[in-house]
Amino acid sequence: MDGFKRPVAMVTGASSGFGLLTSIALAKKGYQVVATMRNLSNSGHLLEIAEREGVKTAIETITVDVTVHESIEQAVAHSIRKYGTIDVLINNAGFAVGGYVEDVPMEAWRSQLETNVFGVIAATKAVLPYMRAQASGCIINVSSVSGLSAFPGYGPYSTSKFAIEGFSESLRLEMKPFGVRVILVEPGAYKTDIWRKGFDAIHTTEASPYWNKLNKMLGYSRKAATSAPDPQEVADKIVQVVEKRSPNLRYALGRGVKVGLWIRMLLPWKWYEGLLQRLMK
Distance between CA atoms of 191 and 194, rounded to whole angstroms? Predict the structure, then answer.
C-alpha cells in the first residue's frame, strides 16, 4: 500500500461482457482494477486482452461469488489492505432468467434475485463504510432497460432490475450527503452473452400454454440481439460517468432505448399495452 496513488475500482462479473470491457477501459484510464468473478479459470480472456492493451499489471483478478457474501467481504478487505482504498464499485455481475411466470420454478426466481439483487446489495454494503469514511466514492449499478419497461417472458429478470432501480434511488439519496455518487447504467440490447445464456436456460416446454407466445417473444429478442451495437459503448460510458463530478442518476443506453422509454412514459398504459400486443402477434 505504501506510495500507492492510483484510484482503485472493483468490478463484479468481470470475466465477460460489460464487466470485462469495463475492467479494461478503467485500467487504460489509470485505475487499479480489482476484477472479480466466480471462477478464476474464466479470467484468461480478460488477461489476454489486458496484456495486449498493455494494462495487465493494472488488473488483479479475485474470486468472488456475489451469492456468497463472505467472499465479497474478503475481497473488499483484501483490496483495502493492499491498496488502501476502493474508490469505485461497478456492480455488474448478473444473469437472466426467462420464461412465463407460471412456468418458472420458485428456485429459479430465488436464484435470479440472489445474484441480481442481493449480490448487488451485499457488494454495496461491503464498500460503503470505506467510501463514507473517505467522503468520496462512486457506485455504478448496471441495471437494464428491463428495469424500466417489462416485457412478457422476462418476468424474473425484470423483477430483479426493477428492484435495483428502487435500491439505487434510495441509496443515492442516502449517500449524497457523504460525497458518494450512485448511478444507474441501463443498457438495452447489446452483443453480450447474457441473452444467449438466458435463451439456453429458458423455462418452458412444448406442453406449456405459453409456448407459442414465448417463442414469438424470443424470436423478437434474438432478432434484436443479432443487430445489437458493440458493448464497448457501455464500457466507455461507464468510465465517462465514473469521472463525472455530478453525474445523473440514470443513463439509458442502446439503439432505440430512449425513444421506447419516451413512448412508454407518454402513452396511456392501455395504448402502450395494445401496441405491445400487436407487436407480439
Answer: 9
What is the set of active-site residues? 157
Q: What is the CATH number of the domain that holds 113?
A: 3.40.50.720
- For helices 257-266 and 269-280, the axis angle rounded to 10 degrees is 130
Backbone angles phi, psi at 117, to 5 degrees: -115, -60
C-alpha cell at 133: 469514511
Neighbours of 279 (CB within 10 A): 11
- Residue-range definition of the domain harbouring residue 174: 8-280
Distance of CA 140 to the CA centre of its chain: 9
Cβ pair 81, 114 in contact under 8 A:
no
Q: In terms of pTM, does the model score above 0.90? A: yes
Phi-psi category of residue 158: left, alpha or beta, with phi > 0 → left and psi -120 to 50 → alpha: alpha
- 61: part of which helix (H) or strand (E)? strand 59-63
| 53: in domain | yes
**Tens digits of per-residue pLDDT, 152-167?**
999 999 999 999 999 9
